[in-house]
Write a structure and sequence with these properties.
Layout (H helix, E strand, L loop, with lengths): L1 H50 L7 E6 L2 E6 H39 L11 H9 L12
Antiparallel strand pairs: 1-2
């Protein structure tokens, strides 16, 4: 009977670990997407800043779905500004999702008493260690 209880506990422990890892992966995926969209946003800003001082009738080229299309600055600039706004809205939504996923992950950790290796349990203890300077710490000396 003890073996059956042990197997049941081991199975539930594994399920908790798998679910925790899944939550962390989801959080990392959201953070990765935020990084991509921030880079896109910065790229849009650079192009918009470059084109805003250019004559609206001047030719320019834009990549649409991997195809290079010839347009005028007057046609492209409003489209770029609209895309920039959409990227900003998407970024805001993803940041909210990231915060929610972080809260969900912390709640899951506390509910199941999960401690991750490498995370600080008592940051005050570590800050004392960092403040103390030990001679020769981190230096290799050949004898």
């Amino acid at each position: 009977m003890a073996k059956a209880a042990l197997k049941k506990n081991a199975g539930s422990y594994q399920q908790i670990v798998v679910q925790f890892q899944k939550l962390r992966q989801e959080q990392q995926a959201i953070a990765s997407k935020i990084g991509e969209l921030e880079a896109d946003s910065e790229e849009h800003d650079v192009v918009i800043d470059t084109l805003k001082d250019v004559d609206a009738s001047r030719r320019c080229f834009r990549s649409v779905g991997g195809i290079l299309v010839e347009r005028t600055v007057g046609e492209v600039l409003p489209a770029l500004q609209a895309n920039r706004e959409q990227v900003g809205v998407a970024l805001d939504k993803l940041k909210e999702q990231l915060e929610e996923k972080g809260r969900e992950l912390n709640e899951f950790k506390s509910r199941h008493n999960i401690r991750v290796q490498g995370e600080d349990e008592n940051p005050k203890k570590d800050s004392k260690k960092k403040d103390e300077k030990t001679p020769g710490a981190g230096v290799l000396v050949a004898k």
